[in-house]
Amino acid sequence: QSALTQPPSASGSPGQSVTISCTGTNSDIGGYNYVSWYQQHPGKAPKLMIFEVSKRPSGVPDRFSGSKSGNTASLTVSGLQAEDEADYYCNSYAGSNNFVIFGGGTKLTVL
Amino acid sequence: EVQLLESGGGLVQPGGSLRLSCAASGFTFSNYAMSWVRQAPGKGLEWVSSISSSDTAYTYYTDSVKGRFTISRDNSKNTLYLQMNSLRAEDTAVYYCAKSAGGNYWPYRYGMDVWGQGTTVTVSS
Questions:
Q1: Is B13 exposed, middle or buried (0-12, 13-18, 19+ CB in 10 A)?
Q2: Which residues of A fall within a CB distance of 8 Å from B115?
Q3: Potential cystine with A78: which of A11, A17, B9, B49 (Cβ 3.0-4.6 Å)?
Q4: What pLDDT, in 10s, does the model give residues A87-99?
Q5: Is B5 an interface residue toward A (CB < 8 Å)?
Q6: Chain A touched by B90 (CB under 8 Å)
């Protein structure tokens, strides 16, 4: 069960947009529209930000958006704010054998 | 308030056992699939196991814990469990329990929308 591939870090200035990628295979991201994204601040539990590739749970600002192309999913944070600085993890269904896999995480820094 | 509270973590020697518990409140526990997710020190999230909502519970495990860990639930006590046997150093992590957002749907469908604060398991001699 290999983890999905995310860049270790990303950054942007307040007000800018930043996109975090998450690359998998035809057996996970490319095969299903079941990609989620989680935000985790240091010492805190993860928070669900996106599910089913692009849907936002209630309460999540519309500055957060998700998309997918082929085997790569992306999370875009628009209008960056200081509180967006956190670790972000993608997650995908990987079939009945591997079930659920996470990406390695991306540390987002707001400059 | 919807809440999950893990307990049972601690220091255990390699080869030892621990049972983690996750007490749920503020929602109808029996209607939701549940999961355990762990995070090794300084590392990323790793899905460990999931269980369906029903008493005839369907379960899934990540390969590295198959045959060693058992997930279970007691809907009468609103509690999720993770029995961990034959523990290894690489099992050292903070263990989170998490609620599926979509009722009995598996966590990959609608995500996991409620998480506990985590309980720390350290496997060391």
A1: exposed
A2: 45-47
A3: A17
A4: 999 999 998 888 8
A5: no
A6: no
